[in-house]
Amino acid sequence: MISRKIEICAFPYAVGLEMRLPETILQGLQQVGGLQQIRRSLPPGSVVKRVSGIFQSVSDPIRLSILYELSVMPLCVCVLKSVLRIADSKLSYHLDDLRSAGLVSSQSEGRFMVYRITDLGRDLLRACSRLGMTDAKLGEGVKRKLVTVRP
Hints:
Distance between the termini: 64 Å
Number of helices: 9
CATH class of the largest domain: Mainly Alpha
Strand content: 5-15%
Oligomer: single chain
Number of domains: 2
């Protein structure tokens, strides 16, 4: 049985405004075991923070473009810079962000720093593909925002 307190939804910013929850919500809460069960199903704060950081990392079109480039093959900084046509400092900033999120790794090969997409980075790009976020399905406006590579 759901308590009376849960049956009524009070709006904290509208003093005195209370409404009875829809019957489907009340039934659903009873089926899943109430608010406590929903709270228990939430991942720990550290997991939410980590996942949020990953999504924040790929929310930038340059960083997303870097991931797509590295999904083709490992690349050194000079090639990434040439393809993206951005300053060293800007590229360095974005690569550090992707590395911190665990989406790319780097390894020194002689005098060159070579970046590779990680399994997590590949999984993220695959998820985008499964969601229909492929080049063929993107609208022109969205494509222009995602891909900053110029001919």
